[in-house]
Design brief:
The chain is of the alpha+beta class and about 190 residues long. It is built from five helices and eight strands. The longest helix is centred in the N-terminal third of the chain and has 17 residues. It starts with a strand and ends in a 14-residue tail after the last strand.
């Protein structure tokens, strides 16, 4: 089974609207034989990120389209920095409160990215108030999404500087963003 990042531009005026979208995606994904791994809503409710596990991107997209909830953006992703079983087990206690997106420079390979990540990760110890949780790296090497638990956005930026990782976009995550995760084969 592969992991897919579904990105919705929600412009959701309320948490309930974002939750309804996530629940619809989770239900449709489960009906298609997949599972929502996690969902996150930016603090401004402009973007909803859903990570789903499914055997086929095409089947997932066709099914979501039939349910009238096809995402405008989908990417196959690789989980880095965390174990999938641990992420699934922690669904009920979302600790992430910040999301960093990094748009990769042209020519960066997965191997080079992973090597850089391994070499830089120990430097997070220099920033004890920021906890790196996990990253989803797009297999097409366009970008990654990194989740953090930190006191504020400045602390996340500082941590990224310490490890030498750029920030293309930084968003607070609305809490709780995990309440509907778990729909699926589980």
């Amino acid at each position: 089974m592969a992991l897919y990042l579904l990105q919705y531009r929600a412009n959701a005026p309320t948490r309930q609207a974002a939750t309804a979208l996530i629940e619809a995606v989770a239900s449709a994904t489960a009906e298609l034989g997949g599972e929502v791994i996690e969902s996150q809503v930016t603090g401004d409710r402009q973007t909803v990120f859903v990570v789903a596990e499914h055997a086929s991107e095409e089947v997932l997209l066709v099914g979501l389209d039939a349910a009238d909830i096809a995402p405008p953006g989908i990417s196959q992703v690789r989980l880095v920095g965390a174990d999938l079983a641990d992420v699934k087990a922690a669904r009920d206690r979302n600790e992430a409160n910040f999301l960093v997106e990094w748009d990769f420079p042209a020519g960066l390979t997965m191997d080079a990215y992973l090597k850089r990540k391994r070499e830089a990760s120990p430097k997070y110890a220099e920033v004890p108030d920021v906890q790196f949780l996990r990253t989803y790296v797009c297999e097409d090497m366009t970008r990654c999404l990194c989740f953090y638990h930190a006191p504020d956005a400045d602390a996340v930026r500082h941590a990224r500087d310490v490890v030498g990782a750029p920030v293309s976009r930084l968003a607070a995550i609305e809490q709780p963003a995990h309440e509907v995760v778990g729909h699926g084969r589980g």
